[in-house]
Amino acid sequence: MNVNEATSHFTKRPVWAQIDLTAAAENMQRIRKHVGNTVSVCAVVKGNAYGHGAVEMAGVFLDNGADRLAVACLDEAIELRQHGITASLLVLGHTDGRRASDIIQYDIETTVFCYEDAKHLSEAAEKAGTSVRIHFAADTGMGRIGYQACEESIREIKKISRLPFVAAEGFFTHFCVSDIKDKTFTQEQFRRFSWFRRRLEEEHIPARHFHCCGSAGVLAYPEFYCDMVRPGIIQYGCDPSSEVTTEGYGLQSVMSLRCCITHVKMIEKGSTVSYGRRFTAPKPTKIATLPVGYADGYPRRLSNQTEILVHGRRVPQVGLICMDQCMIDVTEIPDVCIGDEAVLFGKQENEVISVAELADKTGTIVHEILCNINRRVPRVYIKDGQVVKRVEYLLNKH
Ligand SMILES: *Cc1c(COP(=O)(O)O)cnc(C)c1O
Asked: Which of 12, 33, 46, 381 is catalytic?
């Protein structure tokens, strides 16, 4: 992959998120192998597949071992349907029952934790001559959505399960500290989940699938898989946290963020760079400008604290990162030219800047860095080292 391929010989914006479809495919094959054939894999592609492009990732994951998909909100599910994805599709967040016509039209499974929503769904489904598949959410300690483990919850779940045109496809919960070493609270959450399972059985309330493990659960809690798991971040080759990592699993990072240098110049000792004059050249300094900034999702918090790869070597980013541009100090790199590739995260020759490194420096998690790479950044999809697709969100060519 060179810059000419990535930018179609500079006829496209020279900033791109490079998405390695081969890596994504192999990651899913490894996840599938790891969880075994008795467990369904529900690939989480919310947030535009953590910035990677939901439509493209959904296809790759389904072709390489995923059984079904999950997103966060109904519109994300509709986007996938409108692009021809026919697999089972679960919306993990809240969907108001009054959105029943979209739910029915696009055949989407929704998460339910309120009788009113379920009632709307059942009534609309009856009119449409169909039924709606739902997953009950249980709040076992996350404190976000779902039924708490008590008899009142069981009564309402029973009432919903008696509605004639909704069918319980699943029952799930979500762990809040499965990405730390201490297992105490996750075990407590699973204990509450198991209480639910037992009570549902006693009340003869059926549910086809039980699921609670996200990525960290997939890595650290095989005993809690039940019959389905919901991997997210590990599909994209990143660690859930520094305590629960993918080390030894052979997963590869899928996205890298790249651009081409737009300007190179020498500045004198004492000259300053960017807004606020927060970098002063300590000696004559060679500055290169990159056409990427925080409006692309490259965090301003990284200003003056991060490095960028040029010619396979780390160079310091200098001065405040602007909305659309930033500068780097390339004094130490010979022969830097306009058009040369700079890597904001990812691999270049033998050097790597990981998403985790940037997340640490900005006090956030890898998920947020990836999701924030936004629609102004073209996605360049590569397979076995060749460009196979380009998605230009702004130019509406996807
Ligand atoms: C986002 C999400 C996941 C996937 O999370 P990762 O940590 O990225 O694996 C799984 N389940 C639910 C309910 C989620 O909201």
From this structure: 46
The confidence score (pLDDT) of residue 398 equals 45
Mutation test of ligand 1: which of 35, 211, 213, 230 has the most ligand atoms closer than 8 Å to its C-beta?
Answer: 230
Q: Which atom of ligand 1 is nearest to the CA of 50?
A: 8
Cα-based distances in Å from 271 to 115, 276, 326, 333: 65, 12, 16, 20
pLDDT digits (tens, 9 = 90+) for 172-219: 999 999 999 999 999 999 999 999 999 999 999 999 999 999 999 999
Spot the catalytic one: 147, 275, 283, 383.
275
Mutate to test the pocket of ligand 1, among 174, 180, 235 (most ligand atoms within 8 A of CB): 174
Domains along the sequence of the chain with CATH:
38-236 (3.20.20.10), 255-395 (2.40.37.10)
Is 147 an active-site residue?
Answer: no
Instruction: Output the CA 71–ligand 1 centroid distance in Å.
Output: 9
Query: What are the beta bridge partners of residue 172?
Result: 137, 211
Give the dihedral sign, CA 84/85/89/94: negative
Distance CA 132, CA 159 (A): 16
Residue 396 has a pLDDT of 75
| pLDDT of the residue at 397 | 53
Closest CA to 234 of 42, 386, 40, 27: 27
- pLDDT value at residue 83: 97
* pLDDT 10s digits, 93-147: 999 999 999 999 999 999 999 999 999 999 999 999 999 999 999 999 999 999 9
275 catalytic residue (yes or no)? yes
